[in-house]
Write a structure and sequence with these properties.
Distance between the termini: 21 Å
Radius of gyration: 16 Å
Number of strands: 0
Structural class: mainly alpha
Number of helices: 6
Helix content: over 70%
Length: about 160
C-alpha cells in the first residue's frame, strides 16, 4: 500500500475536501439564485465583512483562497488528532464522517459567529440537511482517508 508523507496526506485531503465542498456550494448556491462570485465574496466576508461584496473578482479570489486555506487547516487538525488518537485513521470511513459532523457545527456555531460576515447561521431545513451530509462525506471522509494513507514512521534522511 502506498504511503504519503504527512504533508502530502494533508495536502491531498485538504484539496479533495476543498474541491468537493466548493463544487457543492456553487451548485447549491446557483440553484438558490446566487452567482459563484457572490458565494466566494461571502467566504471573504468572514474576514472583510460587508465590504467584501464590493470587491469584485479580487474579493471572490480571496474567498476561494480562504476556503482552501480553511480546508487545509481542517486537514491539519485531523492529522494531528489522528496521531494522538490512532483509531481515527484505522477506520476513516467511520471517523471521517464523525469529524465532518463536528466541523459543520464548529464552522457554523463558532467560526461564523466570531467572523465579520454579516450573515450569521440560521436554520433552513434543506441547507441544514445537505450541509451536514456534505461536511460528513465531502470534507470529513476525504480528509480522514488521506490521513490514513500518511506514514507514521519517521522519514529517513
Amino acid at each position: 500500500m502506498r504511503r504519503y508523507s504527512p504533508g502530502v496526506a494533508i495536502l491531498v485531503g485538504g484539496l479533495i475536501a476543498g474541491t468537493l465542498d466548493i463544487l457543492y456550494a456553487t451548485g447549491y448556491s446557483a440553484w438558490r439564485g446566487m452567482a459563484p462570485q457572490q458565494l466566494l465574496q461571502f467566504v471573504a466576508s468572514g474576514l472583510l465583512g460587508q465590504a467584501s461584496f464590493d470587491g469584485g473578482n479580487a474579493t471572490a479570489a480571496l474567498g476561494l483562497l480562504l476556503h482552501y486555506l480553511m480546508m487545509l487547516l481542517i486537514a491539519v487538525i485531523f492529522y494531528v488528532l489522528s496521531r494522538q488518537l490512532p483509531f481515527l485513521v484505522r477506520k476513516p470511513i467511520v471517523w471521517g464522517p464523525v469529524f465532518g459532523f463536528l466541523v459543520y457545527w464548529t464552522m457554523n456555531l463558532v467560526v461564523m459567529q466570531l467572523s465579520a460576515t454579516p450573515n450569521k447561521w440560521r436554520f433552513i431545513p434543506l441547507s441544514f440537511a445537505t450541509g451536514i451530509l456534505v461536511h460528513m462525506l465531502f470534507i470529513g471522509l476525504p480528509i480522514a482517508w488521506a490521513a490514513s494513507k500518511a506514514r507514521t514512521e519517521p522519514i529517513a534522511a
